[in-house]
Write a structure and sequence with these properties.
Elements lengths: L13 E5 L3 H13 L3 E5 L2 H8 L6 E5 L7 H12 L6 E5 L3 H7 L7 E4 L4 H15 L4
Parallel strand pairs: 1-2, 1-3, 3-4, 4-5
Length: 137
């Protein structure tokens, strides 16, 4: 599956999507690109951390069940490495919300999105995530 190209710097907001499933990653990227967002993609936590050395995003979308690191641990490292106290994040997961809530004690402002989800739900969650991220921590 071919993912959409990254949007130019003038896009609405730049989003990093980290998901181990290429089809899921590409569908999310296509949705965001069609709605004017710039998108960068990573298939693993390791890849995301490499991208983070040169990239900066307005928000991140992270699968909580990455093969090489938990989504929460990745988020913690992205925040620490970027120096940002408040980095808007959406955790997507096939796990139950209760399991996620227990794991997310270190990310109290995180948005949770259970798989499967529709386009509208994804876009609304992202807009809320971005709005919450602009508030003071």
């Amino acid at each position: 599956m071919k993912c959409p190209p990254a949007m130019p710097e003038s896009s609405r907001a730049r989003i990093l999507i980290v998901d181990g499933s290429s089809p899921v990653r590409c569908v999310m990227a296509e949705i965001l690109a069609r709605h004017g967002y710039g998108v960068d993609l990573a298939g693993s936590a390791r890849e995301a951390l490499l991208l983070a050395q040169t990239g900066r995003w307005d928000a991140v979308v992270i699968d909580s069940g990455l093969p090489d690191m938990s989504g929460v641990e990745l988020y913690t490292r992205l925040r620490r490495d970027s120096g940002r106290v408040c980095l808007p994040v959406i955790f997507v997961s096939g796990y139950s919300e209760r399991q996620l809530l227990n794991a997310l004690q270190s990310a109290p402002r995180a948005t949770l999105l259970a798989k499967p989800f529709g386009v509208v739900r994804f876009l609304v969650a992202l807009e809320q995530c971005l709005e919450n991220g602009t508030e003071n921590p």
